[in-house]
Design goal:
Number of strands: 20
CATH superfamily: Alkaline Phosphatase, subunit A
InterPro entries: Alkaline_phosphatase_core_sf (IPR017850), Sulfatase (IPR050738), Sulfatase_CS (IPR024607), Sulfatase_N (IPR000917)
Oligomer: single chain
Low-confidence stretches: 1-19, 526-535, 605-611
Family: Belongs to the sulfatase family.
Protein name: Sulfatase
Largest sheet: 10 strands, mixed
Strand order of the largest sheet: 9-8-7-6-10-3-11-12-4-13
Keywords: Calcium, Hydrolase, Metal-binding
Organism: Chitinophaga pinensis (strain ATCC 43595 / DSM 2588 / LMG 13176 / NBRC 15968 / NCIMB 11800 / UQM 2034)
CATH architecture: 3-Layer(aba) Sandwich
Number of helices: 15
CATH topology: Alkaline Phosphatase, subunit A
Length: 612
């Protein structure tokens, strides 16, 4: 009798089998004295649920009606009302780092995504080169090897720019990271009517319909085909629309629902949302609303034409968010129609960061007519251009993004916004967990969570062990903490007790309810646009950044800075951040203004070649 180790993937009855067991047949000289053997198919446990991860883009904590907002999101409301609302969940403060941590269950610098995978915002260091290593396998790779079919639609955002042509290489496309089918875009943003569209491993032409409609159609078609071929086989769907990242584009059918609804302005909006959040129990009853940021004008001091313009920006955004909720409802309703909804575990992360500050104080109708791209424009001339083109906001002709005041309003009850890793306004995003078949104790959960927690949560709930190897590659340890312990116990103490944050120099460290943070360019209300003319902002000395200290157990929205009162605690947390910086590849600190400027001045030809 001879034994062999099989290293190939064998297809039997349509199931992918990874044979790593010792060969258990008998190989004789002839067939008559031999015994055939095949490894058993890899199958999930009987009754294993389907899994859907939904990740929205640039949605502030207080935008949706699900978490106190005044923008209608009935689908998310329903999922949350029949599941769990996590109010203390966090992201990395910007898209690619959040998505890398989500996909891998590890901290974003540890998987080389300290910035982006784009040419202008990656750097040749282990924490910043934008190339997730094979030793940090994704949720799709793990579930695929565990017998799930795996699909992704929408925004991926983790493929290096130079790899995005039809020539690949494809190992850092979704297909190379465990997804059997992908339909969407590889970059960080795209036009919703003219998207840079990819299907599987091919760049394709868009058909002119809104991207959210197209990705929903694809998601439903993937599920339909799979369930027809293998009704009892579970699937994993990653549904990540471009919404509500700029450009804000949606038909009047949706935006017109909000005509006049924001005429009261962002100050009234914040007060309404804050009151709703208290009523829903989303925030403490004794909470206080932070002051309006000093870079934002009081609404009642704006001229009538400004108010009209800025309200229109928010009408478009609100319609865009409600439309996105509608597209998600199509997936939910399809699952219900085929009797699969009760057997589907759904996670919804309402934003990969806080509301976006990238629309500047005036908002954006066309990127070409903003002070970011056109040095000849002042704030006033940019606003006048926007007022003259107000009818274009939200249409395929615009690159619409709302002004800064709405970013803070959508982040109610927090300060600051996207990119600000030092602030809860940049990093706190709501989480919904839905699975009525297996989650009986519905309601609000306040345990601390971070985006890297979803992978271990999913594996624990499915009773799938974390693999030591994927495709023969030894796997690095996970950094996330499963949230399953909190599903049935609303009062369970948090198990994820320590977490660093770092984006573009802004940084923070959380430990057992205490948080220390430092802004790097606190005077900059938006990141300079690295694909246009970089604003000349001098680099800052990181050692001169001012650290603040908050006790989130008593002051969840960072109103009272305790740095002077508790200098020992601040010093302790700063030391802990330094330990994290060394452990997870946060060093070297980089002032990205210098990187953007160098790329623009010295490497335009290289960028053009990579983009083709």
């Amino acid at each position: 009798m001879k034994f062999f180790t099989l290293s190939t993937v064998i297809l039997v009855s349509g199931l992918a089998l990874k044979a790593q067991q010792p060969y258990q047949g008998t190989v004789g000289r002839t067939l008559a004295d031999s015994k055939e053997w095949w490894p058993a198919p890899v199958k999930p446990a009987a009754g294993s649920p389907n899994v859907i991860w939904i990740l929205l883009d640039d949605v502030g904590f207080g935008a949706t009606s699900t978490f106190g907002g005044v923008i209608s999101t009935p689908t998310f409301d329903s999922l949350a009302n029949n599941g769990l609302r996590y109010t203390n969940f966090h992201t990395a403060a910007i898209c690619a780092p959040t998505r890398a941590a989500l996909m891998t269950g590890r901290n974003h610098h540890a998987v080389h995504m300290g910035g982006f995978a784009h040419y202008f915002s990656s750097a040749g260091f282990p924490g910043y080169d934008g190339r997730i290593p094979s030793s940090s396998g994704t949720i799709a790779e793990i579930l695929k090897e565990s017998g799930y079919n795996t699909f992704a639609v929408g925004k991926y955002g983790l493929t290096p720019d130079e790899d995005t042509s039809d020539a690949g290489p494809f190992d850092r496309w979704p297909s190379g990271k465990g997804f059997e089918h992908f339909f969407g875009f590889l970059g960080s943003e795209t036009d919703q009517y003219k998207p840079a569209l990819v299907e599987d491993n091919v760049n394709i032409k868009p058909d002119g319909r809104h991207l959210s409609e197209q990705i929903t159609d694809k998601a439903i078609s993937y599920i339909a085909r799979q369930k027809k071929a293998a009704p009892d086989k579970p699937f994993f769907l990653y549904y990540a629309p471009g919404a509500t990242h700029a450009p804000h584009q949606v038909t009047p059918e949706w935006s017109d629902r909000y005509k006049g609804k924001f005429d009261g302005g962002w100050d009234v909006f914040r007060e309404q949302v804050f009151a709703n959040q208290k009523k829903q129990g989303i925030i403490p009853a004794n909470a206080k609303l932070p002051e309006r940021n000093e870079d934002i004008q009081a609404w009642n001091t704006l001229k009538p034409d400004q108010q009209k313009l800025y309200a229109r920006f928010m009408e478009i955004y609100a319609g865009y968010l409600t439309y996105t909720d509608h597209e998600v409802s199509r997936v939910i309703n399809y699952l219900r129609s085929i009797n699969q909804l009760d057997n589907t575990l759904i996670f919804v992360v309402l934003g990969d960061n806080g509301g976006s500050k990238e629309g500047t104080q005036e908002g954006t109708v066309s990127k070409a007519y903003t002070p970011r791209r056109n040095k000849g424009l002042t704030r006033d001339s940019a606003r006048l251009f926007n007022e003259a083109h107000i009818s274009e906001i939200g249409t395929p002709a615009s690159d619409a993004n709302y002004p800064l005041g709405w970013a803070q309003a959508s982040n109610t009850p927090f300060k600051y916004w996207k990119q600000d890793a030092n602030s809860e306004g940049g990093t706190r995003n709501p989480l919904i967990v839905f699975y009525p078949k297996g989650i009986k104790e519905k309601g609000i959960r306040t345990q601390y969570g971070y985006v890297s927690d979803l992978l271990p949560t999913t594996l624990e709930f499915l009773k799938i062990p974390f693999p030591q190897e994927i495709k023969g590659v030894k796997q690095d340890s996970l950094h996330g903490t499963s949230l399953v312990y909190s599903f049935e116990n609303a009062s369970a103490p948090s198990r994820h007790t320590e977490q660093y944050y770092y984006i573009f120099g802004s940084r923070a460290i959380y430990k057992d309810g205490w948080k220390a943070g430092a802004a790097h360019h606190p005077d900059m209300v938006e990141l300079n646009d690295y694909s246009g003319s970089a604003k000349q902002v001098p680099a800052k000395n990181f050692d001169k950044d001012v650290w603040e200290l908050y006790n989130l157990n008593e002051d969840f929205n960072e109103r009272v800075n305790l740095a002077e009162k508790y200098p020992e605690k601040l010093a302790e947390l700063k030391q802990l951040f330094e330990a994290n910086a060394k452990k997870y590849n946060i060093y070297p600190f980089i002032d990205w203004e210098d990187v953007f400027r160098a790329r623009l001045i010295n490497s335009k030809k290289a960028f053009s070649a990579a983009a083709k």
